[in-house]
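Subject line: Sequence and fold of a protein, written as structure tokens
Body of memo: The sequence and its backbone structure tokens, given next.
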Amino acid sequence: MANIASSKKDARRSAVRAARNRSLRSSVKTKVTRFRRGAAEEAENLDQLAVTAVAALDRAVAKGVLHANNAARKKSRLMKRLNATAQAAEPAPEPQRGAARGSAGKTETARARKGRRQ
């Protein structure tokens, strides 16, 4: 324990901040976990869970509890998972029959156009 009064006060303030940060970090983790569970169980309110988790991450960054890049990475993974579940729920569009790949409808090739210019 520190002997100087200002050091004692600093230690108390650090303990209070650490407790506050721990609580906020824990609530962020809980919200992210709820979203992940909802995605795994295909919950109906998945969009709302994602919004709540992203808002919690942003709030933690604003308060200095999480690093901005850390939160950005977590948000990116959340949105990737949300989009993957949304695409899995939608039926895939049927491919068009008879359409050629690449330059459908183009009559001239690049080589022919180049030869014409010279």
Notes: The mean pLDDT is 86. Residues 21 and 63 are 9 Å apart (CA to CA). The two ends are 86 Å apart (CA to CA). The domain at 10-90 is CATH 1.20.58.110 (Methane Monooxygenase Hydroxylase; Chain G, domain 1).
